Amino acid sequence: MPHVDGFMYPNEIELQWSVLIVLYPFITGLVAGAFILASLERVFNVQAVKPTYRLALLTALAFLLVAPLPLQLHLGHPERSFEMLFTPHTTSAMAMFGFVYLWYLMVVLLLEIWLDYRKELVLAARASRGLKRLLYRAITLGSDNISAASLRIDDRVGRIVTIVGIPSAFLLHGYVGFIFGSIKANPWWSTPLMPIVFLFSAIVSGIAAVLLLYIAISRLRRATIDLVCVDTVARYLYYAFLVDFSLEMLDLVHRIYEADESFRALDFMVKTRLFTSQIVLQIGLGTLMPLAILAATQLLRLAPATRIRLYVIGSVLTLTGILAMRWNVVIGGQLFSKSFLGYTTYKMSFATREGMLPAILVMLLPLAILAVLIKLLPPWEQPLALANQADAETS
Amino acid sequence: MTATRRDFLVVGSRLLVMTAATAAALEHVLAETPEAVSTYKTAEHWWAMIIDLDKCIGAGHCVRACKEENDVIDEPMFFRTWVERYHIDMSDPDHPIVDSPNGGIDGFTEKYPEDSGKTFFVPKLCNHCKDSPCTQVCPVGATFVTEDGVVLVDKEYCVGCRYCIQACPYGCRYLDPRTQTADKCTLCYHRLTRGMVPACCEACPTGARQIADLKNPKDPAHEYLRTHKMQILKPQMATGAKVFYNGLDGAVR
Q1: Count of CB atoms within 10 A of residue A306's CB?
Q2: How far is A84 from chain B (nearest CA, A)?
Q3: Alpha-carbon dihedral sign for residues A185, B228, B197, B41
């Protein structure tokens, strides 16, 4: 039985939402953030970030495909989860997940990727043979018109999809924040700021993830890192992080100043049970440190190699901080009693359905999917057909 | 021992009265057999509960009766009803000391000297809220409010997401590990619809728990509610809670 200090209502002693539910907002946040970064180039015409455009889209897709997995693993009856789509309860925030998810997956992300890659897919299908040809032809969905006029339409539609995609990405992650923010029974969650804090932290984590992936993959491919690109992405990361940090501080200051009935209990929790994950990991290492690092890269004249190294460190710390933030929201929100009279503990198991092992696998799976996607749809400037030819020549 | 004529008459008349009472009770019980359920009309009832805290002695009979009647899993983290003991030291009224050992199922052992402050018991159960947050958040509508005001869970439909457990401000729900579905107090709905009172009310030795039909003006609960100053838990939550407490201390959460 978990260790309890003070008094918990008996049914509160065991935590209901585990580490898997921590990963759910973390993963959807990466999706939304990566997509926002991609749309910088497409909609706002920030040419400098172009080298990350396709990588950002594929990253968003890889994580989006995995997003429902932690939820499915967590459900008492995953076999009934389709009921949320077929017989959704209209007053439930959670019932909207399937619709928001499918809209985002099918209408925004897949469509945008497909439109962007269509020409290369057609060329690749023509250039390759056998199974590969079949696969590429299948992905083209039988549309092999790559005339200039047709590609212009692709581009125009793609732009519209991206424009629709931005509010959709906001919806996807703002909605995840709403799931927590709308629970009036829980003062740790219940704040109208929750969706917007989730959204900005999502943008921050998505940009950091793509920046890190871009640098890592470039190193693996022995390709030159586009400095203007990483500088620009890092600058956006810094700006987004400043907004995110301000919002979180606003929430904190508001709580401290208002000091409502829950304040004493929550304050005690932050200073004790959440000290490491909230004060040390989230605020110290995960926010102030990367903000200082990013500020340094903006203010000081540093050598390219140093800048890149700092971007890597900054991104890793940022991702750690955002993951810690998700942990503190989800787990922290269940550690105190709704009577405000006591605290329980969360002990993560290892090889159980909701333990640490499946959590690690759930986090690794998107990277594996991304590797496959990159193989199938190389996000580099080199056209697919050429890449295939090169493949054929080397094999 | 020889019985006098007077003894005979006293015992005899007592037996006669008891037999008559039993017969009347039996008739009452028989009228509420399962077959009578078809006559139960949900639209004619609106169920609530009255708890007179001045009468609660923390015996734990209600907790035991509930666990037995409803096959509630016998572990200390799963309760449809439980009893809390509050102790408030007058020198520090802001920090009540609360305990509920195993939900109070075995009652409470003496812990506080009589002159050290005030000590009282608070039975808790689902508040069968009119605007229940648990019902609002259920993604598939497995949790619902019946026409007669009882919040129930359809176990065949519940997906086990536990959102309802998070949404309940009173900690009244849990996930039954046997069925992997949400579970909670049903106000013994299976008994209510047969004209019987919930098991906890029946088991309470002091009559501290009373079921109340707010739609039935003949229910004695109406007189009680009219003549007592009642309070609900966490009124600021605006859930339309329907468990009404008499003598609820402001320290209770």
Answers
A1: 13
A2: 5
A3: negative
- Of the candidates B141, B134, B173, the one whose C-alpha atom is nearest the C-alpha of residue B159 is B141
State the pTM of this model.
0.90
Say whether A10 and B171 touch across the interface (CB within 8 A): yes
Domain match, B23 and B67 both: no
Side-chain half-sphere exposure of B130, counting CA atoms within 13 A? 11
Residue in chain B closest to A334 (alpha carbons) equals B166
Structural domain for B180, as ranges: 46-246
Interface contact B237, partner A, CB < 8 A: yes
Residue B17 lies in a domain: yes
- Is the pLDDT at B32 greater than 50? The verdict is no
Can you read off the two tokens belonging to residue A310?
A: 């700092």
- Distance (Å) from the alpha carbon of B128 to chain A's nearest alpha carbon: 15
Contact criterion met (CB < 8 Å) for A83 and B174: no
Q: How many domains does chain B have?
A: 2
Q: In which band, very low, low, confident or very high, does the pLDDT at A388 lie, cut at 50, 70 and 90?
A: low
Q: Which residues 166-185 in chain B show a CB within 8 A of chain A?
A: 166-175, 179-181
A391 and chain B: CB distance < 8 Å anywhere? no
Q: For residue B36, give both structure tokens.
A: 């009578």
- Whether residue A191 is predicted with pLDDT greater than 90 in this model: the reply is yes
Closest residue in B to A98 (Cα) is B139
Contact with chain B for residue A9, Cβ under 8 A: yes
In a domain, B183, yes or no: yes
- Note whether B235 contacts A: Cβ–Cβ < 8 A: no
Together in a domain, B176 and B120? yes
Which of A366, A378, A369 has its CA nearest to residue A29?
Answer: A366
Distance CA A147, CA A144 (A): 9
The domain locations on chain A are: 21-234+351-388
* CATH 1.20.1630 is held by the domain A21-234+351-388: yes
- The CATH number of the domain holding residue B153 is 3.30.70.20
Q: Buried b vs exposed e over A218-228: b needs ≥16 C-beta within 10 Å?
A: beeeeeebbee
Handedness of CA A145, A150, A151, A156 (dihedral sign): negative
| Residue B85 backbone dihedrals phi, psi, to 5 degrees | -110, 125
Q: For residue A130, how many C-alpha atoms fall within 13 Å in the half-sphere facing its CB?
A: 3
pLDDT higher than 60, residue A26: yes
Q: Dihedrals φ, ψ of A67, to 5°?
A: -50, -40
B169 and B95 part of one domain? yes
ipTM score assigned to the predicted complex: 0.93
| B77/A14 CB distance under 8 A | yes
Q: Which parts of chain B are beta strand (E)?
A: 47-52, 81-88, 97-99, 118-125, 143-145, 151-153, 174-176, 181-183, 209-213, 230-231, 243-246
